[in-house]
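S.,

Sequence below, as promised.
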Amino acid sequence: MIGSSAQGLSDRHRELLGLEAVRDLDQRSCRGGEGQARRSLRTLEVVSALLASTSIAHSLDAFFEAVGQFFSDLAAVHWGLLALGLAFFGLNLTLRSRAFFHSLRAAYPAVGFRWRRIWGAYFAAVGFNNVVPARGGDVIKLFLARSSIPGSSYPTVAAAFFVESVFDASVGVLVLIFAFTQGVFPKPPDFSKLNSFDISYLAEHFRFTLFLITALAILAVVAFALLSVRVRAFWTRVRQGVTILTDRPRYLREVASLQALGWMCRFVAFWFLLDAFRVGGSVKNVLLVFGVNQVAGAVPFTPGGAGVQQALLVKVFARSAPTAVVAAYSVGQQIAIATFTALVGLGAVVFIFRFRSFNEVLHAGRASRDAEREAERAGVPFDDGSSLEPPPDARRAPMRY
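The prediction came back faster than expected:
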Protein backbone atom coordinates (compact mmCIF):
# COMPACT_ATOMS: atom_id res chain seq x y z
CA MET A 1 0.00 0.00 0.00
CA ILE A 2 2.87 2.32 0.82
CA GLY A 3 4.60 1.50 -2.43
CA SER A 4 1.57 2.54 -4.44
CA SER A 5 1.31 5.73 -2.40
CA ALA A 6 4.93 6.56 -3.11
CA GLN A 7 4.51 5.84 -6.80
CA GLY A 8 1.49 8.19 -6.90
CA LEU A 9 3.54 11.15 -5.71
CA SER A 10 3.72 14.12 -8.05
CA ASP A 11 6.96 15.33 -9.60
CA ARG A 12 7.10 18.21 -7.14
CA HIS A 13 6.83 15.84 -4.19
CA ARG A 14 9.58 13.61 -5.63
CA GLU A 15 11.90 16.57 -6.01
CA LEU A 16 11.33 17.73 -2.44
CA LEU A 17 11.48 14.33 -0.81
CA GLY A 18 14.38 13.14 -2.96
CA LEU A 19 14.55 10.01 -5.02
CA GLU A 20 16.54 8.21 -2.33
CA ALA A 21 13.88 8.85 0.29
CA VAL A 22 11.14 7.57 -2.03
CA ARG A 23 13.19 4.49 -2.95
CA ASP A 24 13.88 3.82 0.73
CA LEU A 25 10.16 4.15 1.45
CA ASP A 26 9.41 1.53 -1.21
CA GLN A 27 12.01 -0.90 0.24
CA ARG A 28 10.75 -0.52 3.81
CA SER A 29 7.17 -1.12 2.67
CA CYS A 30 8.25 -4.43 1.12
CA ARG A 31 10.30 -5.86 3.99
CA GLY A 32 9.08 -3.93 7.02
CA GLY A 33 6.46 -5.07 9.46
CA GLU A 34 2.96 -3.72 9.82
CA GLY A 35 3.98 -1.20 12.48
CA GLN A 36 6.80 0.13 10.35
CA ALA A 37 4.45 0.46 7.37
CA ARG A 38 2.00 2.46 9.46
CA ARG A 39 4.80 4.77 10.65
CA SER A 40 5.90 5.26 7.04
CA LEU A 41 2.35 6.07 6.00
CA ARG A 42 2.05 8.63 8.78
CA THR A 43 5.37 10.16 7.73
CA LEU A 44 4.20 10.41 4.13
CA GLU A 45 0.93 12.05 5.20
CA VAL A 46 2.80 14.58 7.34
CA VAL A 47 5.18 15.42 4.49
CA SER A 48 2.23 15.83 2.07
CA ALA A 49 0.50 18.13 4.56
CA LEU A 50 3.68 20.19 4.93
CA LEU A 51 4.01 20.45 1.16
CA ALA A 52 0.40 21.60 0.87
CA SER A 53 1.01 24.18 3.60
CA THR A 54 4.09 25.35 1.71
CA SER A 55 2.00 25.77 -1.47
CA ILE A 56 -0.62 27.79 0.40
CA ALA A 57 2.06 29.96 1.97
CA HIS A 58 3.68 30.55 -1.42
CA SER A 59 0.32 31.53 -2.94
CA LEU A 60 -0.33 33.96 -0.09
CA ASP A 61 3.15 35.45 -0.40
CA ALA A 62 2.63 36.03 -4.11
CA PHE A 63 -0.78 37.60 -3.47
CA PHE A 64 0.40 39.99 -0.76
CA GLU A 65 3.47 40.88 -2.81
CA ALA A 66 1.13 41.92 -5.62
CA VAL A 67 -0.96 43.90 -3.12
CA GLY A 68 2.18 45.70 -2.01
CA GLN A 69 3.08 46.41 -5.63
CA PHE A 70 -0.39 47.86 -6.21
CA PHE A 71 -0.23 50.25 -3.26
CA SER A 72 3.32 51.30 -4.11
CA ASP A 73 2.21 52.20 -7.65
CA LEU A 74 -0.97 54.07 -6.70
CA ALA A 75 0.42 57.27 -8.18
CA ALA A 76 0.65 55.57 -11.58
CA VAL A 77 -3.04 54.57 -11.62
CA HIS A 78 -5.22 56.63 -13.94
CA TRP A 79 -8.07 57.40 -11.53
CA GLY A 80 -10.41 58.84 -14.15
CA LEU A 81 -10.28 55.65 -16.23
CA LEU A 82 -10.67 53.59 -13.06
CA ALA A 83 -13.84 55.51 -12.16
CA LEU A 84 -15.22 55.02 -15.67
CA GLY A 85 -14.47 51.31 -15.49
CA LEU A 86 -16.33 50.94 -12.20
CA ALA A 87 -19.25 52.99 -13.54
CA PHE A 88 -19.67 50.68 -16.54
CA PHE A 89 -19.27 47.65 -14.28
CA GLY A 90 -22.10 48.97 -12.13
CA LEU A 91 -24.20 49.56 -15.26
CA ASN A 92 -23.57 45.93 -16.23
CA LEU A 93 -24.94 44.74 -12.88
CA THR A 94 -27.90 47.11 -13.17
CA LEU A 95 -28.89 45.69 -16.57
CA ARG A 96 -28.52 42.15 -15.27
CA SER A 97 -30.70 42.93 -12.27
CA ARG A 98 -33.36 44.25 -14.66
CA ALA A 99 -33.23 40.96 -16.60
CA PHE A 100 -33.60 39.06 -13.32
CA PHE A 101 -36.56 41.31 -12.44
CA HIS A 102 -38.28 40.40 -15.72
CA SER A 103 -37.76 36.68 -15.04
CA LEU A 104 -39.44 37.09 -11.66
CA ARG A 105 -42.31 39.11 -13.14
CA ALA A 106 -42.96 36.32 -15.62
CA ALA A 107 -43.08 33.88 -12.70
CA TYR A 108 -45.42 36.14 -10.67
CA PRO A 109 -47.42 38.15 -13.24
CA ALA A 110 -50.19 39.13 -10.80
CA VAL A 111 -47.92 40.34 -8.00
CA GLY A 112 -46.61 43.89 -7.62
CA PHE A 113 -43.03 44.38 -6.50
CA ARG A 114 -40.37 47.00 -7.09
CA TRP A 115 -37.33 46.71 -9.33
CA ARG A 116 -35.20 48.71 -6.92
CA ARG A 117 -35.51 45.92 -4.35
CA ILE A 118 -34.40 43.30 -6.90
CA TRP A 119 -31.57 45.66 -7.90
CA GLY A 120 -30.56 45.96 -4.25
CA ALA A 121 -30.64 42.20 -3.78
CA TYR A 122 -28.48 41.71 -6.88
CA PHE A 123 -25.85 44.24 -5.81
CA ALA A 124 -25.81 42.92 -2.25
CA ALA A 125 -25.07 39.41 -3.52
CA VAL A 126 -22.26 40.50 -5.85
CA GLY A 127 -20.73 42.71 -3.18
CA PHE A 128 -20.76 39.92 -0.59
CA ASN A 129 -19.32 37.35 -3.02
CA ASN A 130 -16.44 39.70 -3.84
CA VAL A 131 -15.29 39.90 -0.22
CA VAL A 132 -16.32 36.50 1.21
CA PRO A 133 -15.61 33.10 -0.42
CA ALA A 134 -18.00 30.19 -1.10
CA ARG A 135 -20.67 32.36 -2.81
CA GLY A 136 -22.66 33.12 0.31
CA GLY A 137 -24.01 36.14 -1.55
CA ASP A 138 -26.35 33.85 -3.50
CA VAL A 139 -28.12 33.10 -0.21
CA ILE A 140 -28.47 36.83 0.38
CA LYS A 141 -29.92 37.42 -3.10
CA LEU A 142 -32.33 34.52 -2.68
CA PHE A 143 -33.68 35.78 0.65
CA LEU A 144 -33.88 39.47 -0.29
CA ALA A 145 -35.56 38.76 -3.64
CA ARG A 146 -38.02 36.33 -2.08
CA SER A 147 -38.87 38.78 0.70
CA SER A 148 -39.57 41.45 -1.93
CA ILE A 149 -42.30 39.42 -3.67
CA PRO A 150 -45.47 38.76 -1.65
CA GLY A 151 -46.52 35.11 -1.69
CA SER A 152 -43.35 33.93 -3.44
CA SER A 153 -41.41 30.76 -2.61
CA TYR A 154 -37.72 29.99 -2.39
CA PRO A 155 -37.74 27.25 -5.09
CA THR A 156 -39.35 29.60 -7.63
CA VAL A 157 -36.97 32.50 -6.94
CA ALA A 158 -33.97 30.15 -6.96
CA ALA A 159 -35.08 28.69 -10.31
CA ALA A 160 -35.18 32.21 -11.74
CA PHE A 161 -31.41 32.34 -11.13
CA PHE A 162 -31.06 29.70 -13.83
CA VAL A 163 -32.64 31.87 -16.51
CA GLU A 164 -29.66 34.21 -16.84
CA SER A 165 -27.20 31.30 -16.88
CA VAL A 166 -28.52 30.18 -20.29
CA PHE A 167 -27.15 33.24 -22.09
CA ASP A 168 -24.07 33.49 -19.87
CA ALA A 169 -23.09 29.87 -20.51
CA SER A 170 -23.33 30.37 -24.26
CA VAL A 171 -21.12 33.46 -24.18
CA GLY A 172 -18.76 31.83 -21.69
CA VAL A 173 -18.08 28.87 -23.98
CA LEU A 174 -17.20 31.20 -26.86
CA VAL A 175 -14.93 33.25 -24.58
CA LEU A 176 -13.07 30.15 -23.39
CA ILE A 177 -12.64 28.87 -26.96
CA PHE A 178 -11.09 32.21 -27.91
CA ALA A 179 -8.85 32.30 -24.81
CA PHE A 180 -7.46 28.79 -25.28
CA THR A 181 -6.69 29.40 -28.97
CA GLN A 182 -4.53 32.51 -28.46
CA GLY A 183 -1.39 30.69 -27.34
CA VAL A 184 -1.05 32.62 -24.07
CA PHE A 185 -3.73 30.98 -21.94
CA PRO A 186 -2.42 27.97 -19.98
CA LYS A 187 -3.93 24.61 -20.82
CA PRO A 188 -5.84 22.87 -17.98
CA PRO A 189 -2.95 20.41 -17.25
CA ASP A 190 -0.66 23.42 -16.75
CA PHE A 191 -2.90 24.91 -14.05
CA SER A 192 -0.90 22.88 -11.50
CA LYS A 193 2.09 25.17 -12.16
CA LEU A 194 0.21 28.38 -11.28
CA ASN A 195 0.90 30.30 -8.07
CA SER A 196 -2.61 29.71 -6.78
CA PHE A 197 -3.09 26.90 -4.29
CA ASP A 198 -6.77 26.18 -4.98
CA ILE A 199 -6.68 25.68 -8.74
CA SER A 200 -3.15 24.21 -8.76
CA TYR A 201 -4.17 21.65 -6.13
CA LEU A 202 -7.21 20.56 -8.14
CA ALA A 203 -5.17 20.34 -11.34
CA GLU A 204 -2.32 18.45 -9.67
CA HIS A 205 -4.61 15.97 -7.90
CA PHE A 206 -6.68 15.05 -10.92
CA ARG A 207 -8.12 11.90 -9.36
CA PHE A 208 -9.42 13.86 -6.38
CA THR A 209 -10.94 16.45 -8.74
CA LEU A 210 -12.73 13.74 -10.71
CA PHE A 211 -13.94 12.17 -7.47
CA LEU A 212 -15.24 15.55 -6.25
CA ILE A 213 -17.08 16.23 -9.52
CA THR A 214 -18.54 12.71 -9.56
CA ALA A 215 -19.65 12.97 -5.91
CA LEU A 216 -21.39 16.30 -6.56
CA ALA A 217 -23.11 14.86 -9.62
CA ILE A 218 -24.32 11.82 -7.65
CA LEU A 219 -25.61 14.06 -4.86
CA ALA A 220 -27.49 16.15 -7.41
CA VAL A 221 -29.08 13.04 -8.95
CA VAL A 222 -30.05 11.69 -5.51
CA ALA A 223 -31.53 15.04 -4.50
CA PHE A 224 -33.45 15.19 -7.77
CA ALA A 225 -34.86 11.69 -7.22
CA LEU A 226 -35.86 12.35 -3.62
CA LEU A 227 -37.51 15.66 -4.39
CA SER A 228 -39.34 14.33 -7.43
CA VAL A 229 -40.82 11.53 -5.34
CA ARG A 230 -41.52 13.37 -2.10
CA VAL A 231 -42.41 16.89 -3.15
CA ARG A 232 -44.16 17.26 -6.48
CA ALA A 233 -45.18 20.79 -5.56
CA PHE A 234 -41.49 21.65 -5.39
CA TRP A 235 -41.02 20.96 -9.10
CA THR A 236 -44.15 22.93 -9.91
CA ARG A 237 -42.55 25.94 -8.23
CA VAL A 238 -39.25 25.34 -10.04
CA ARG A 239 -41.03 25.32 -13.41
CA GLN A 240 -42.78 28.53 -12.40
CA GLY A 241 -39.38 30.20 -11.89
CA VAL A 242 -38.32 29.54 -15.50
CA THR A 243 -41.66 30.48 -17.05
CA ILE A 244 -40.10 33.18 -19.22
CA LEU A 245 -38.05 30.55 -21.08
CA THR A 246 -41.28 29.14 -22.51
CA ASP A 247 -42.01 32.47 -24.22
CA ARG A 248 -39.05 32.89 -26.58
CA PRO A 249 -39.88 36.38 -27.94
CA ARG A 250 -40.37 37.70 -24.42
CA TYR A 251 -37.19 36.01 -23.20
CA LEU A 252 -35.15 37.53 -26.03
CA ARG A 253 -36.71 40.95 -25.51
CA GLU A 254 -36.69 41.20 -21.72
CA VAL A 255 -33.77 39.00 -20.63
CA ALA A 256 -31.28 38.06 -23.36
CA SER A 257 -31.15 41.55 -24.86
CA LEU A 258 -30.42 43.11 -21.46
CA GLN A 259 -27.76 40.51 -20.74
CA ALA A 260 -26.14 41.25 -24.11
CA LEU A 261 -26.04 44.95 -23.22
CA GLY A 262 -24.64 43.99 -19.83
CA TRP A 263 -21.81 42.03 -21.45
CA MET A 264 -21.03 45.05 -23.63
CA CYS A 265 -20.87 47.31 -20.57
CA ARG A 266 -18.64 44.77 -18.86
CA PHE A 267 -16.41 44.75 -21.95
CA VAL A 268 -16.05 48.54 -21.80
CA ALA A 269 -15.47 48.37 -18.03
CA PHE A 270 -12.49 46.02 -18.33
CA TRP A 271 -11.08 48.00 -21.25
CA PHE A 272 -10.98 51.10 -19.01
CA LEU A 273 -9.55 49.09 -16.09
CA LEU A 274 -6.76 47.66 -18.28
CA ASP A 275 -5.88 51.19 -19.39
CA ALA A 276 -6.14 52.54 -15.84
CA PHE A 277 -3.48 50.10 -14.62
CA ARG A 278 -1.24 50.55 -17.73
CA VAL A 279 -1.69 47.02 -19.09
CA GLY A 280 -3.42 48.30 -22.22
CA GLY A 281 -7.01 47.89 -23.35
CA SER A 282 -7.75 45.98 -26.55
CA VAL A 283 -10.33 43.53 -27.82
CA LYS A 284 -7.97 40.61 -27.31
CA ASN A 285 -6.94 41.65 -23.81
CA VAL A 286 -10.51 42.16 -22.65
CA LEU A 287 -11.57 38.76 -23.99
CA LEU A 288 -8.60 37.17 -22.22
CA VAL A 289 -9.75 38.82 -18.97
CA PHE A 290 -13.21 37.37 -19.62
CA GLY A 291 -11.61 33.93 -20.01
CA VAL A 292 -9.74 34.35 -16.73
CA ASN A 293 -12.98 35.32 -15.00
CA GLN A 294 -14.73 32.22 -16.37
CA VAL A 295 -12.06 29.94 -14.93
CA ALA A 296 -11.86 31.82 -11.61
CA GLY A 297 -15.64 31.68 -11.22
CA ALA A 298 -15.49 27.88 -11.20
CA VAL A 299 -13.21 27.88 -8.11
CA PRO A 300 -15.19 29.58 -5.29
CA PHE A 301 -12.55 29.05 -2.57
CA THR A 302 -11.49 32.71 -2.50
CA PRO A 303 -13.55 35.93 -2.71
CA GLY A 304 -14.31 36.48 -6.38
CA GLY A 305 -11.67 33.87 -7.27
CA ALA A 306 -8.99 36.44 -6.36
CA GLY A 307 -5.99 34.08 -6.16
CA VAL A 308 -6.88 32.28 -9.38
CA GLN A 309 -7.42 35.56 -11.22
CA GLN A 310 -4.08 36.93 -10.11
CA ALA A 311 -2.13 33.80 -11.13
CA LEU A 312 -3.84 33.50 -14.53
CA LEU A 313 -3.57 37.20 -15.38
CA VAL A 314 0.18 37.21 -14.66
CA LYS A 315 0.57 34.21 -16.96
CA VAL A 316 -1.72 35.52 -19.73
CA PHE A 317 -0.22 39.03 -19.91
CA ALA A 318 3.41 37.97 -19.42
CA ARG A 319 4.25 39.22 -22.94
CA SER A 320 2.03 42.32 -22.87
CA ALA A 321 3.36 44.18 -19.83
CA PRO A 322 5.99 43.87 -17.06
CA THR A 323 5.16 41.28 -14.41
CA ALA A 324 4.99 43.91 -11.66
CA VAL A 325 2.45 45.94 -13.67
CA VAL A 326 0.27 42.90 -14.39
CA ALA A 327 0.43 41.77 -10.75
CA ALA A 328 -0.60 45.24 -9.57
CA TYR A 329 -3.43 45.27 -12.12
CA SER A 330 -4.72 41.84 -11.10
CA VAL A 331 -4.92 42.79 -7.43
CA GLY A 332 -5.88 46.42 -7.97
CA GLN A 333 -8.78 45.52 -10.23
CA GLN A 334 -10.06 42.99 -7.70
CA ILE A 335 -9.74 45.46 -4.82
CA ALA A 336 -11.49 48.23 -6.77
CA ILE A 337 -14.41 46.05 -7.91
CA ALA A 338 -14.79 44.41 -4.48
CA THR A 339 -14.78 47.76 -2.68
CA PHE A 340 -17.23 49.34 -5.11
CA THR A 341 -19.74 46.48 -5.15
CA ALA A 342 -19.47 45.84 -1.40
CA LEU A 343 -20.17 49.50 -0.56
CA VAL A 344 -23.11 49.73 -2.97
CA GLY A 345 -24.42 46.36 -1.80
CA LEU A 346 -24.14 47.30 1.87
CA GLY A 347 -25.90 50.57 1.11
CA ALA A 348 -28.76 48.63 -0.48
CA VAL A 349 -28.96 46.31 2.52
CA VAL A 350 -29.13 49.25 4.94
CA PHE A 351 -31.26 51.79 3.08
CA ILE A 352 -33.56 49.56 0.99
CA PHE A 353 -34.00 46.47 3.17
CA ARG A 354 -33.37 48.08 6.59
CA PHE A 355 -30.79 45.55 7.79
CA ARG A 356 -27.67 46.67 9.60
CA SER A 357 -25.17 44.22 8.06
CA PHE A 358 -24.70 41.33 5.64
CA ASN A 359 -24.46 38.98 8.59
CA GLU A 360 -27.89 40.03 9.80
CA VAL A 361 -29.32 39.30 6.35
CA LEU A 362 -27.78 35.80 6.38
CA HIS A 363 -29.29 35.01 9.78
CA ALA A 364 -32.70 36.33 8.72
CA GLY A 365 -32.52 34.32 5.49
CA ARG A 366 -31.76 31.05 7.29
CA ALA A 367 -34.55 31.68 9.79
CA SER A 368 -37.01 32.45 7.00
CA ARG A 369 -36.04 29.32 5.04
CA ASP A 370 -36.41 27.12 8.15
CA ALA A 371 -39.82 28.64 8.85
CA GLU A 372 -40.95 27.96 5.28
CA ARG A 373 -39.89 24.31 5.57
CA GLU A 374 -41.80 23.92 8.81
CA ALA A 375 -44.88 25.44 7.21
CA GLU A 376 -44.59 23.02 4.27
CA ARG A 377 -44.40 20.05 6.63
CA ALA A 378 -47.46 21.32 8.49
CA GLY A 379 -49.31 21.88 5.21
CA VAL A 380 -50.10 25.53 5.90
CA PRO A 381 -49.36 28.59 3.71
CA PHE A 382 -46.18 30.44 4.62
CA ASP A 383 -45.82 34.22 4.67
CA ASP A 384 -43.09 35.74 6.81
CA GLY A 385 -44.46 39.23 6.27
CA SER A 386 -41.03 40.50 5.25
CA SER A 387 -42.17 42.15 2.03
CA LEU A 388 -43.11 45.79 2.19
CA GLU A 389 -45.17 45.62 -0.99
CA PRO A 390 -48.99 45.76 -0.78
CA PRO A 391 -50.94 42.90 -2.36
CA PRO A 392 -52.02 43.49 -5.97
CA ASP A 393 -55.49 44.82 -6.61
CA ALA A 394 -55.63 43.75 -10.26
CA ARG A 395 -55.03 40.58 -12.25
CA ARG A 396 -51.72 42.00 -13.50
CA ALA A 397 -50.11 44.63 -11.34
CA PRO A 398 -48.52 47.66 -13.00
CA MET A 399 -44.75 47.68 -13.30
CA ARG A 400 -43.13 49.43 -10.37
CA TYR A 401 -39.76 51.05 -9.99
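Residues 2-64 form one domain.

Coffee later?
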